[in-house]
Amino acid sequence: MYCIVDDLLKKIPQAVLVKLTDDAGTGAIDQTKVDDAMIDAANEIDSYCRSRYPVPFNPVPGIIKKLALDIALYNLFSRRGFEEGSPDKIIADRYKAAIELLEKIARGLVSLGDSGNAPPPPQGVDISNPPRRFSRPKLEGF
Fold first, then answer.
1. Where are the domains of the chain?
2. Region of residue 141 (phi > 0: left; psi between -120 and 50: alpha; otherwise: beta)
3. Cβ-proximal residues to 58 (8 Å cutoff; 6+ apart), any chain
4. Is the pTM of this model over 0.90?
């Protein structure tokens, strides 16, 4: 996971997180639902970034943590649905922006910089300077 519950609680009040996860009416945060939302967010991020970076990220770049929070919040809010005119619509807008950024990362238009991970090795063979097979000395006598 790229974020934790404390990170979510810095973005939304605890009462909102309880409302989003407490299907049983216990008055407490359902940790399983929060963990599922954060795991799903990490998996979604990894699916975009795996073509350019080794995943999971370790250490986690700051932008990946932000994207994980935006996606996890979207996952939690979408459990109860969005109304077009509601203040919660910003969560859907942030999710759309996160996906757009992940698409740019996947296409190589945005770099994560030094993410603490080396880029994956190139696929294929370097043929920029192959050894010469035929030269005057090798062909002498033919």
1. 5-113
2. left
3. 116, 117
4. no
